[in-house]
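User: Quick sanity check before I run a bigger batch. Here is a single chain. Can you write out its predicted 3D structure?
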Amino acid sequence: MEFNINIHIIIGLHGSNAFTHRQIIPDITFCLEKLSSKEHHLKVIIAHEFGHVLHNILSEQAGVNWANMQWEHPYTWLLQEGCATYFSKQIVDVNEEIYFLYEEDREGWLQFANNNKKEIIKAFQLDVKHLSSKEVYMEWFSINGGSRFGYTRLAYFIGYSILQFLIEKFGEHKAVMLWKKEEFSHEIEKVLINFIN
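Assistant: Done. Predicted structure follows.
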């Protein structure tokens, strides 16, 4: 796979640790003051961001109609983060929590997520129904969120769990390309309900 994209390295803006730009084949930005100095942490976050790009490249090759994409829907973000996490796990071999945190798990994030999966997903579903997309993003996807449970970016755990379920059900390629289908939101909803029950 060839990546013909721009990589930006910025410092002093105090945003996220890294992100892809809102493009079909996105550029990547890394925010130096928010990154760990440990090599294995850096490898994971780099792999994660390139995982986003890979997801979009594969989607473009599969003929996704980008005009129909629900970019502002949390279910889209769940698939994106699930895929980026999944792809990073194919490239870098580290402790499980680092795929979600990009650092060591000092506060029991992964144990909390595993032990409270049903409650976390119920709360996420309630917020999707009652909050704006921006509020859902800030609480569940942002490194500055996490007020509900005291842990940030729990949506990454949900997204990865969803993708694992979808891979078992449909196979890898169909799971990763699920956002191409009209029934995408309905399928994500079904998986979330399955986890809750």
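The chain has a mean pLDDT of 95.

User: Great, the batch can go ahead then.
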